[in-house]
Write a structure and sequence with these properties.
The chain is an alpha/beta fold and about 425 residues long. The protein has 7 helices and 28 strands. The chain has a 6-stranded mixed beta sheet, with no helix packed on it. Strands 16-13-17-21-20-18 form a 6-stranded mixed beta sheet, sandwiched between helices. The structure holds adenosine monophosphate and magnesium ion (MG). The site of magnesium ion has 6 residues, from loops.
């Protein structure tokens, strides 16, 4: 009896939980998941400052100022960004001020240089210079209040935030040098098969290159995990067991194997899994990728989950998308666990037979703004679980439910994109 995709996924996810935090530098925290709430320890900006290059004034002094009737003020000091004004601004006075410099006491607005006229020749600044203010300013014009961005004590970022550049900037402005982020799930990747040679090795008769290792490693990284490629295990118990022990010794959180889980003479992954731990289930009502094994490996006092992915490169990618990706995201604290589901109009007819079919497809936006999706491409053979190049052509899966046998052109179908922006979901 095949178990349903839904049931298989739910049972797999029960074995995973959020990993503990680790401390990294702010730079290393990019694209990581914040592991605690961040509360502002001080105001940002920390002090009231000028938003413009100009003159800090008392607004009441210049209410009548205009270009035709400027108001003259005595310039009693100047203050650059990073410095403090030496004097406060009294009635009839102004302080020359730069963007970001602290507002001097007494002043309640800044008049931009463009609305002033300095009444001295360039390079010949007199002892008591006079500036003509040509524009009235409402209170606090061109002044940034302390804490106008973030207030001391304010909750700024919730635990679980995926850290993008803006988040890192905010953390920097609050003085965070190191911070706790969810540890990246370490995922061992193990290809199995007597026919495999390394991707950079010469091809010999009867051999094929190990492409699954590279695909899986890249998918693991894309899901926020840290891949640990273990190379190739041969189709015998000793070779496979040795590789499994190597991964376990490295302390991985999940094992991904590919191939050797079908019903062929040399498909020994299930047997080794049962010997080294326990096999929880095998064979799921999914297409492609029916031979999928899940189990737990015993290692010291731990039990490490193992997902035995099919060997066919596309089936392995489908199984990764459906089962491994949410497990890795769960451990890494990434939400949502699953890709968004969009509705799209089918551009060609589809046949199905009893399993949930993940069809490679390409979606795009039609002229009316709705989504349309093709499961056949011009000149490419698309569906066939060994046709890996069609995964390059595809940008989503059309998910055909197990209960649906055929769909006509124009039917509305559900698609799952390969990549998506997490915040938009
Ligand atoms: P198996 O499940 O071992 O019968 O493998 C199914 C198919 O996937 C066979 O045609 C294998 O040659 C192919 N295959 C297995 N492992 C890999 C791999 N690492 N890279 C590419 N193809 C593979
Ligand atoms: Mg094999």
């Amino acid at each position: 009896m095949l178990i349903s995709v839904q049931h298989a996924r739910t049972s797999i996810l029960e074995y995973f939980s959020l990993l503990p935090p680790e401390h990294v530098t702010l730079w290393e925290a990019a694209t990581r998941v914040l592991a605690q709430e961040v509360v502002a320890g001080h105001d940002v900006p920390p002090f009231r400052n000028s938003a413009m290059d100009g003159y800090a004034v008392r607004g009441a002094d210049v209410t009548a100022a205009s270009r035709s009737a400027p108001v003259r003020l005595r310039v009693v000091a100047q203050v650059a960004a990073g410095a403090l004004a030496e004097r406060e601004v009294g009635p009839g006075e102004a302080v020359r001020i730069m963007t970001g410099a602290p507002m001097p006491d007494g002043a309640d607005a800044v008049v931009r240089f463009e609305d002033t006229s300095e009444l001295w020749p360039v390079g010949e600044r007199p002892a008591t210079p006079i500036v003509a203010i040509c524009q009235a300013v409402p209170p606090w014009e061109n002044v940034r209040a302390a804490g106008e961005d973030l207030r001391e004590g304010e909750a700024v970022l919730p635990s679980g935030t995926l850290l993008r550049p803006a988040h890192l900037g905010v953390l920097a402005s609050l003085g965070w040098g190191r911070l706790p982020v969810v540890r990246r799930p370490r995922v061992a990747i193990l290809a199995t098969g007597d026919e495999l040679v390394n991707a950079d090795a010469p091809l010999e008769a009867g051999k094929i290159r190990n492409s699954n290792e590279t695909t899986m490693a890249a998918l693991v990284a894309q899901a926020g995990g840290e891949p640990l490629p273990l190379g190739i295990a041969r189709d015998n118990v000793e070779s496979l067991s040795a590789k499994l022990r190597e991964g376990l010794a490295a302390g991985v959180d999940l094992f991904l194997t590919s191939a050797g889980v079908s019903v062929g003479d040399y498909d020994i992954v299930k047997e080794v899994l049962a010997a080294e731990g326990e096999m929880t289930f095998w064979q799921v009502a999914i297409k492609p990728g029916k031979p999928l094994a899940f189990g737990l490996l015993n290692h010291e006092s731990r039990r490490v989950p193992l997902l035995g992915l099919p060997g066919n490169p596309v089936a392995a990618m489908v199984a990764f998308h459906v089962f491994a990706q949410p497990a890795i995201r769960l451990m890494g604290g990434r939400v949502p666990l699953f890709p968004p589901v969009y509705q799209a109009r089918l551009l060609d007819s589809i046949e199905n037979s009893g399993r949930r079919h993940y069809m490679r497809a390409r979606y795009s936006r039609a002229e009316d703004g709705t989504l349309e999706v093709a499961t056949r491409g011009s000149g490419v053979r698309v569906q066939g679980s060994g046709i890996l190049s069609s995964m390059v052509w595809a940008n989503c899966f059309v998910v055909v439910p197990e209960t649906v046998n055929s769909l006509p052109v124009g039917a509305t179908v559900e698609i799952e994109p390969f990549v998506w922006v997490e915040e938009d979901v």
